[in-house]
Inverse folding.
């Protein structure tokens, strides 16, 4: 034994640091994944994770970034432009020289320029483009808000569905326990000769049916967990949520009518605000189309210079200078005329204004103005449609909430009544005054009533959340 221990120690000591590092890394990753898998997600965790990782939300955020870049571009329309240019040319045969004479020789040359310009007036086109770009940023933000609201509502509904299935599973397991106890009791009674064997067969069938219900409830729970995990884009392996106790001992609607909710939604909902921005956007679109009727005025300035060189010849030129022997005469003198000298001598400046007055362009401007007016009419209809959608949704949501409350109250009283009925029939059964068939009939109705109660409870909670949602209240308190 001591030899084996010494051999193990020697083996561990022979491990290289690199190998030990890999082992530690693997153990760390395994521990991290295990910790993540065992995490139970709260409702807040689910909503935040969905908003952070949802692909559509990410795309909507990028749409805002694109709109901001359009705004930067629109601001740039008010600034002057500045451009530099340079060229290198080869001429073969004859060409016109810098002095205007025709030269029969191969040459090469350069041209350099620097130009600037600014729009002074173009029918307020740049101003309207800038205002449209600002609306584009606001509209993108409203669209992001709408998408985030929809994602949050989807997650909340999926979360509540899991809670519903968890409670259903608890009821199914309780029924198995009750059936097992009843089977044990009937078995004793049959063995004692108090009950007939048929009661035992009925009890066994009931237990099997209850166990099947547990399996169905487990499957429903697994599917609801899978649905939420897929919405969150996380692994469904060992995925679970934190349970929330929802007790509705005195359930009631928080609103007397849908008028208050509707008034708030029509003033504050992102769908309405975005539709209103659409009208403003088409107003600026109409002004942009009409700006094509107006003249445009711009200012420009520039400077330029050039250089020419004859192939195979030095950069010189003939210059007339005063004859030192005769002041009244001039003589020709060949002087250097290089790159720098030419650029300095050929440097020129220009500036000017440009006025453009539209007269006729094949009815394009007229057609664009008509299209802009049509788009404005469409945006007005879009706003009306958005208001109708909000009105229909809220009135339906309020009616659903009222119906869910009534269903919950009815289910609660039904469960209370059936629980008493089940106690009575069970007592009768124990006294031999009722058959197992009668017991199972009452218990079946009780289980169904409890399932209906759970369903109506979570349905009412979700419908109430929908009303709070339209009132601008947070889905997660």
């Amino acid at each position: 034994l001591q030899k084996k221990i010494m051999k193990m120690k020697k083996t561990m000591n022979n491990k290289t640091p690199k190998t030990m590092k890999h082992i530690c890394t693997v153990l760390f990753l395994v521990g991290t994944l295990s910790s993540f898998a065992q995490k139970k997600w709260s409702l807040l965790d689910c909503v935040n994770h969905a908003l952070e990782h949802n692909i559509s939300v990410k795309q909507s955020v990028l749409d805002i970034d694109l709109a901001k870049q359009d705004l930067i571009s629109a601001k740039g329309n008010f600034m002057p432009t500045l451009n530099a240019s340079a060229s290198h040319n080869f001429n073969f045969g004859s060409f016109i020289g810098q002095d205007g004479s025709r030269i029969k020789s191969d040459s090469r040359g350069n041209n350099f320029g620097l130009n600037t310009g600014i729009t002074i007036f173009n029918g307020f086109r740049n101003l309207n483009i800038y205002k449209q770009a600002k609306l584009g940023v606001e509209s993108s933000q409203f669209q992001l808000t709408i998408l985030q609201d929809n994602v949050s509502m989807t997650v909340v509904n999926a979360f509540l569905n899991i809670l519903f299935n968890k409670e259903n599973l608890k009821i199914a397991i309780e029924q198995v326990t009750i059936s097992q106890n009843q089977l044990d009791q009937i078995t004793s009674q049959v063995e004692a000769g108090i009950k007939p064997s048929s009661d035992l067969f009925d009890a066994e069938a009931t237990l099997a049916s209850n166990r099947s219900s547990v399996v169905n409830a487990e499957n429903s729970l697994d599917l609801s967990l899978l649905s939420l995990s897929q919405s969150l884009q996380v692994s469904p392996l060992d995925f679970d949520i934190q349970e929330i106790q929802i007790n509705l001992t005195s359930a009631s609607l928080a609103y007397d009518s849908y008028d208050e909710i509707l008034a708030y939604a029509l003033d504050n909902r992102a769908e309405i605000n975005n539709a209103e921005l659409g009208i403003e956007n088409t107003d600026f679109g109409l002004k942009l189309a009409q700006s094509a009727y107006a003249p445009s005025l711009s200012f420009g300035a520039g400077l330029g210079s050039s250089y020419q060189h004859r192939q195979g010849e030095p950069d010189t030129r003939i210059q007339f200078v005063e004859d030192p022997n005769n002041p009244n005469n001039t003589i020709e003198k060949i002087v250097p005329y290089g790159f720098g000298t030419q650029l300095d001598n050929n440097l020129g400046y220009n500036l000017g204004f440009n006025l453009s007055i539209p007269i006729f362009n094949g009815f394009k401007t007229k057609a664009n103005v008509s299209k802009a007016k049509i788009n404005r009419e469409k945006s007005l209809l879009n706003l009306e449609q958005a208001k109708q959608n909000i009105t229909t949704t809220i009135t339906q949501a309020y009616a659903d909430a009222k119906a869910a409350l009534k269903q919950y109250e009815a289910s609660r009283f039904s469960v209370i009544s059936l629980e008493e009925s089940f106690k009575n029939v069970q007592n009768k059964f124990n006294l031999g005054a009722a058959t197992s068939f009668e017991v199972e009939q009452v218990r079946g109705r009780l289980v169904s009533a409890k399932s209906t109660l759970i369903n109506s409870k979570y349905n009412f909670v979700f419908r109430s959340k929908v009303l709070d949602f339209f009132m601008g209240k947070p889905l997660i308190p």
About this structure: The beta strands are 40-41, 81-91, 94-96, 102-104, 107-121, 240-241, 296-310, 316-323, 326-336, 348-356.
